[in-house]
Amino acid sequence: MLEIIPEKLKLLSSACPAPLYVVGGACRDYIAGLKTHFVDWDICAPAGGYVMAEIARSVGMEVKACYPLTGSLKLSDGGILYEFTSFRTDIYDGCGHRPVAVSFTNDIRTDAARRDFRCNAVYFDIGGGAFVDPLNGIGDIKNKKISPVAPPEKLFSEDALRIMRLARFCGELGFSADRDCLDGAARSCSALADIPSAQIRRELDGILRADKKYGVGHGHAAALRVLEQTGALDVVLGACHPGKDFFAAFGEVPEGLRLCALFYAVCGGGQRLADCERDRQTVLSRCKAVGYAHRTAQRVAAVCSLSAFDGGGEDEKTLRRLLFDRAEFAADALALDDLFGGVGGGKTSHAWRRVYDKMRAEGVPFTVKELDVTADDLIKAGFARQTTGEILRFLSEECVINGERNVRERLLELSEARFGIK
User: Fold this and answer.
1) What burial class does residue 417 get, using C-beta atoms within 10 Å of its C-beta: 0-12 exposed, 13-18 middle, 19+ buried?
2) 3-state secondary structure (DSSP) of residue 101
3) Which uninterrupted H or E stretch holds 143?
4) 367/354 Cα distance (integer angstroms)
5) What are the residues whose beta carbons fall under 8 Å from the beta carbon of 12, sequence distance 6 or more?
6) Quick one: pLDDT at residue 40?
7) Quick one: how far is CA 308 from the chain centroid?
8) How many CB atoms are closer than 10 A to CB 403?
9) What residues of the chain score a pLDDT lower than 70?
10) CB-side exposure of 347: number of CA atoms within 13 Å?
């Protein structure tokens, strides 16, 4: 462990009047043999924040932030960041996920008991060159197990966001949560409704990329499964009931489509445009409620609703106009349909898929740039510059109905017939 500790951190340890420890993820990952591009350097000591700030400056570190009420510091050594906390215990009032007060201590076991899971409560004494394991976290790490540092209901009722951290750790690390931990999380999951949406979104983003941090295959699907097992998925997404084959399919979803795939599970699906619009509005509101920006939520809602839409109740002309309006989302919608649409997976025979393939085969221009004429062509043909935008939109709509019209000479004829040449 000493081999990977930065030299400046060793200097800080030498200058510290009390033992200085690395704690949490860096220790866990080292023991587990997990490697990542970014090491979480969480450090702690039975020493006050002001004292540690002065010592950090004396060894050439930059103090980027100081929080005296919690005994916390953010330190920097060039491109390396550290978070320091004084040994403490946290006091919660049952509202929110942050402690309302702290009490400082010199006892390492008391400090360990305020953390979340035993695998994250392993310390490394930098000066002594040895691990310190107050709660048998090393045993959990070696057994690839996640167990709580306190009774599960106490742990999760104090901070319900730990339920999402539990899911993320299971996915990222390839560890399994013990039964008591899962049951305690299930009994407390309703409290996630009180967590700020920005915090939910940040953890959800981590869950959707859980396979990336350490390269654990299908880690994102494993993490999502924990959310489902604890009931947290329903609280976060709202009445979400994915089918039994959903999680296996979710493991194969590429990273760029995972948020869409997740919200696809809340779509009811149907044949009519009313069903499509209902799904779109449902996904849009729930995606925004979790904390995603409006533009992101719009994309997710459009992809999910189109993928869940059958279209068999609509005539071809209506479907053509819908697909023209949502052409930028069609490829992603088809990809989701291929993964989740059929019984046991595989492509479905949605009516809109057949119409979309037909439009592509006809060469329907789904954007103005795909038209066989440009604004310059129209100007050269005698149309006024200020009318070209309107003409191009008109031609696009004409070609939606019949892609064979997308030929330069035919487009110019349609333009003259509709607008005349001024």
Assistant:
1) exposed
2) strand
3) none
4) 20
5) 20, 43, 55, 56, 59, 61
6) 87
7) 22
8) 19
9) 94-97, 342-349, 422
10) 8
> For residue 383, what are its two tokens?
């149309």
Q: Please tell me the predicted confidence (pLDDT) of residue 79.
A: 85
Alpha-carbon radius of gyration of the chain:
28
Alpha-carbon gap, residue 420 to 413, rounded angstroms = 9
Residue 270: its pLDDT value, please? 77
Cβ within 8 Å of residue 403, ≥6 positions away: 359, 361, 362, 363, 364, 365
User: Dihedral sign, CA of 48, 53, 54, 60?
Assistant: positive
pLDDT at 197: 94
C-alpha–C-alpha distance, residues 203 and 226, integer Å: 13
Give the per-residue pLDDT at 345. 40
pLDDT at 229: 93
Give the bridge partners for 86, in sequence order.
45
Quote the pLDDT of residue 340.
84
What is the β-pairing status of strands 101-104 and 123-125? unpaired
Judge contact between 225 and 185, C-beta under 8 A: no
Report the distance separating Cα 384 and Cα 371, nearest Å: 19
CA pair distance 311, 325, nearest whole angstrom: 15
3-state secondary structure of 78: coil
User: For position 346, what pLDDT does the model report?
Assistant: 43
Q: DSSP 3-state assignment of 293?
A: coil
